[in-house]
Structure formats: C-alpha cells, structure tokens
Predict the structure.
Amino acid sequence: MNSLLRHKGWTWGFRTTILLYFVVLIVLPILGVYYNSFSLGFGNFVESISDPIAWKSVLLTLKLAIIATLINVFLGTMIAWVLIRYQFIGKALLNSLVDLPFALPTAVGGLMILLLLGPGSLIGKAAEALGFEIVFHQPAIVIAMVFVTFPFVIRAVQPLLEELDPSEEEAAYTMGAKGTRVFWHVILPSMAPGMISGGMLAFSRALAEFGAVVLVAGNIPGRTLVSSVFIFGEVESDNPVSAAAVSVILLTLSFLILWLINMLQMRGRRS
Amino acid sequence: MRKLWIGLTYLVFFLLIAAPLGKMAIGAFSEGFGGFWDALTRPEALHALMMTGLVVIVVTLLNTLFGIMMALYLVRANWINRRLKGLLNSIVDLPYAVSPVIGGLMIVLLLGPDSALGAIFEGIGLKIVYAIPGMIIATLFVTFPLMVREVMPVLQEIGSQQEEAASTLGARGWTIFWKVTWPSIRWAVVYGVILTVARSLGEFGAVLVVSGNIMNKTQTATTLVYQDVENFNVTAAGGIALVLAAFSAGLLLLMEWTKRRKEVQ
C-alpha cells in the first residue's frame, strides 16, 4: 500500500485532499459551534444558558435519557441472554429484528409510536380512560428513546455471553453454588462491561435523539421540550447563538461519554 | 423459568417493534390502496423521494471513496506520526456523538447566509444552506464514520505482509491495491456502503435544519413525513414512511446476507 502512496507524482495532492476533506467536513464544523457560542463573550454564553427554557430542556433531556437507558440496560441484557442461551422457534428472526431500529429512519420510528399510542388509537384511548396520557407527554419521549437505542445494549452484551466459558459456570455449580448465586457472581460480572458500554452508547444516542422525539413530544417548554428540539426551535426562530450555547453543553457531554467508552475499551483490552 | 424469559423477549419485540410497524402499515392503507398510492404520487412526494435518492447517491459515492482512503491512511500510512494518527482516529468517531440537529446547526453557522464563508459562496452565486449542497454536506458529516469504521478493522487484521510481498515482487501501487488489498476488504466495503445508504436515506434532523424543508425544492422523504404529521395528514405520512421502512428492511436483509459472506471469508 505504501508504494501506492509513494509512486505517483501527485501523492501529495492526493494526501492533502483526503486530509482536507476530513478537516473541513468534521473538525471545522465542530470548532465552529464552540467558536460561535463564545463569539459574543463568555457572559453571553452564560446568559443563553441561564434562560430557564434552555436549562430546563437540558435537565429534562438528561432525566428522560437516564430513564430510557436504565430500561434498555435491563431489557437489553435480558434479550441478549435469551438470544444466546436458549433455542426456540423464531430466534434467528428476532436476532435480525434487533437491528431494525438502527435501519429505520428515526422520523419513521417516531411516526410509528405516534400512530400506535396516539389519541385516536386503541392504546391511546385506553390510557386516556385510565386517566394518564402518553403521547405528547414524557412517557412517549422515553418510549421513543428506548426504541431508537434498543440495539446498543443487546449488541454489546451478546459477544460477551458467547465468549463466557461454560466451564466457569459449571465449576461454580459443582462447588455447590445456587443458581442465583452463580448469576450474581459469575454471569453478571462477565456481562457488566457490555451493559456499561452499551448503556453509555444508548445514553449518548438518547441525549442526541431528535427525529423520533420531535414527532411524539408535545414540545411544551419545561415539560416536554428536550434539548435537541429546543435547538431546532432556536434555529427556526433565527436565534443561532442560543442554539449554539445549548449545543455546546450537549456536545461536551457526548464527547465525554465517547471518551469514557474509549477509555473503558482500552482498559478492557489490556486486562 | 426458561419459558418466562422467552415469552418476555417475544413480548418486548412485539410491543416495541412489531406492533408499531404493523399499525403504521395498516394506517397507510386506511383509505385503501388508492389512498396509499395517492400519498405516494403527490407531486411533492415524488419530488421528495427524488431528492432523497439524489442525496443518498452523492453521499454514498463520496463517503465510500474518502472513507476507504481515510481508513487506508489511518492504518497504513507511515508519513503521519503515531500521535497524530491516534488523534485523527478518535476524531473520526465524533459525528456519532453529535446530535443530527447540532450537525445541521454547524453547517448553518459555518456556511449560512450570515456567515463569512456563506457570503463568499453567495457572491459567486452558489447557495449552500437551504439548498442541495448544504443537505449533502450535512449528510456527509453524519455518515462519515460508517465506512472508515467498517474497513479499518479488516485492514488491521490482514496486516501489510501480503502488500509488502507484492511490492517486493515489483507490483505497482494500484496493482497492489486491486489485486491484494481490495479482495480482502471487499465485503467490508459492501457492508459499509449499505450502512451509509441506510443512514443517509433516513437522515432527518441534520437535513431538516439545513434544508429549511421547502416543499418541492429541498424537501426529502423524511422531512415530508414530518411535515405531513405537522399538517395532521397522518395517512399520507404513513404511506411515505411505509416506503422508507420497506427500503430499510430490505437493506437490513442485505446486511445480514453480507455479514454471512464476510464471515465465510
């Protein structure tokens, strides 16, 4: 390969093009947001953030994303377990369906949830009769987040379960450990890295989710307005500085999570 | 115990995936096949599907080309020092962490009509934001890591010995690439292409912000779904969404097939 890069006279032009593409497409826009949110001074940034609608949207996003992540860690671990350990009819089909939320456009995912739970539907009517509301309220946002981040934990835990040496489990049983004890001391610890890294990926995706959420959330400031929708609204109303300020908070948070995942994976590889 | 867990798994899949999908399919045909067909053949729907197709094709072509080259550089190039390579390598993942809306906002801030660059481009008569170039740039940004991340592990795994051997035997750069490197990364590239197509087909947030969602001009299939829902035209939205979902399901099947081919190798 090196000779491919060395031989030609236009090697330098080629290298520069690729790296320039990379820098202009990825690095420059990200720096641009940081630059823009601080362009009118730090005081202005603080002012944009201390707008109650802005910081409430960030807190709400964090809260709902945490709920959605916890649900997904639980469901995902269970499903990964079932799909690896048990043999049953339809297993291969379910295993391929896991990825569907990744493949579907998020706006389609949002529409699906809206149609299923909306005011005109069977479930929507039943919920309304029971006196609680789903669509255009917080539960719908959580459902949308769970839907779009569904595959992460499953796909992170599955390989770990596959690798888990059955002899370890058997040894524990031979030594007289009970089922629940084996689960807590042998199986869970070996799944934990996947649960954590999958959970963090799901969390960062849930923080960022827009398409599915914008369709099912009522977008009422302070109650059902998440940050990504808030940013969209600010762009629409021609207020990019405030949009950039909230973006910087979300971005910094996501980058931290990404960095944490990388650190965890590096440590996992070393041990 | 076993039956309970399997039952619960089926329940989750039914509630979270099958039921919403089924409900949407029924909804799309709630006014019969004619209603579904009308929703698809509206002029704005045809235009939106065409726009989506255009964006998907351009983005997939560009990011496949640049993605493969970037992966090659990040794994093989010895003219980039190791620390810089590590830095570039972690930057590749950044678009994953960026919310699509923020991705769109970045393009608007950088190239919008109020920005310095945007003013220059406007001066030479090239409109970027609220036009096709901006939508393509936004989708390029969002889908960039997919190809790089598919090709890189394969390159790392096969190592450079074969390539070096070919080089020693006197093969030239492109010959080595086509005869030695390409056959081993082929299925990874195919997989990356499918992922890129799926992602750019479904991209919504970034495109919505950048395009301004102007009907019959910059509207794509996903942003049309959004507009239909906003206009309470749920049947029409369901029709377009069903077509998109069918495409995604097809791509998913293709992915499964490619994955098996990849493993065979």
